[in-house]
Amino acid sequence: MQKVNNNGAAFSIQRAAWVRQLVLALMLCASLGFVTGCKEDEDGPSVENANLNPIDREFLEQAVQSNLTEIQLGQLAVQRATDSTVKRYAQMMITEHTAAHADLRNRATAQKWTIRDVLNDENQAKRDNLNNLQAAAFDRAYMRSQVADHQVTSGKFATQVDQGTNPELKAYATQYKPNIDRHLVEAQNIVATLGFQ
């Protein structure tokens, strides 16, 4: 006969209770029709109720995350950056991405798509990492991330212009790709001028 460790028994009971709660929560999600948006973590999709092909859906998700990230990182940079050029760039990101996001939201509303204004885990981690930096280290990391992020975003917008099928999203990508490319060039120039390579 084996001895039962009371700590092990208590852990098993707690685990069983947790599993029951999780199953009940998933059943509730399923009964309400939220199975596709109900995940164990809160890093759910930025877009719901959008019946799109994979290219269009990926673009819409990325555009939402790009706008939200640029706005939030810009707000952080306006507060924390030490260089006035970096602060001016950050303010431009806030202004232009806020306008772009409002336009995207209006287009989504017209299509009856739901957009969630929540950073995904990757972009939240990026914001948290920047928030831990100070002075020149912050300025350098922020501007380097602007170059990298706008390179990725420019590529996604180019793909949508070339391969997207949803007229609203194709029009959005066509309209805003020049802005993304301008942001990229300005970020690259700031990185070079301030010696942040």
From TrEMBL:
Pfam families: DUF4142. It comes from the Bacteria. InterPro entries: DUF4142, Ferritin-like. Gene3D superfamilies: 1.20.1260.10. Residues 56-190 form the DUF4142 domain. This is DUF4142 domain-containing protein. It comes from uncultured Cytophagales bacterium.
